[in-house]
Amino acid sequence: MSKVAAVIERIESVDTLHIVTFGCETAQLKMMSLELGDAMCEGAQVLLHIKPTAVAVGKGDTGKLSIINRIDAVVAAVEKGKLLCRLDLACLGTTLEAIVTTEAAEAMGLRQGDAVTALVKAADIAIERVSDA
């Protein structure tokens, strides 16, 4: 599980649907949620977690996609298995882990040092901990 330190910059709500914008070291991330705890407020420091299987990786032009969270990253490590490939992506002042198929990693020619874009849907970000600002 990848962990990212962030600060809540904005909360937009309609009924029980919330879009939370976080400021991270070098990017903004957005999360979609149906429930927000009482401690969730602008300026609160949070620790986010992102499952490795929720991270897609793009190389080169990622084109027009509906995924709002696009994070510039560098491949720090590649661990290939028969079916799956684990990637360590250096970004946001931490390491974001991605699990992709080995076929996809080979088709993209992913290697250590490659510049890539990590793609994470807003519904795939969760808050692990909230601290006061």
What order do the helices and strands come in, and which of them pair?
Elements: E1 2-14, E2 17-23, E3 28-33, E4 45-50, E5 55-58, E6 69-80, E7 84-91, E8 94-101, H1 102-108, E9 115-120, E10 125-131
Antiparallel strand pairs: 1-2, 1-4, 2-3, 4-10, 5-9, 6-7, 6-9, 7-8
Descriptive tags:
1 helix, OB fold (Dihydrolipoamide Acetyltransferase, E2P), mainly beta, 5% helix, 133 residues
Description:
With 133 residues, this protein is mainly beta. It has one domain: Beta Barrel (OB fold (Dihydrolipoamide Acetyltransferase, E2P)), CATH 2.40.50.100. Helices cover 5% and strands 58% of the residues. It has 1 helix and 10 strands. It has one helix at residues 102-108, and strands at residues 2-14, 17-23, 28-33, 45-50, 55-58, 69-80, 84-91, 94-101, 115-120, 125-131. The strands form 2 sheets. The protein has a 5-stranded antiparallel beta sheet, with no helix packed on it. Strand 7 and strand 8 form a beta hairpin. The longest helix is centred in the C-terminal third of the chain and has 7 residues, at 102-108. The chain starts with a strand and ends with a strand. The model has no long low-confidence stretch (mean pLDDT 92).
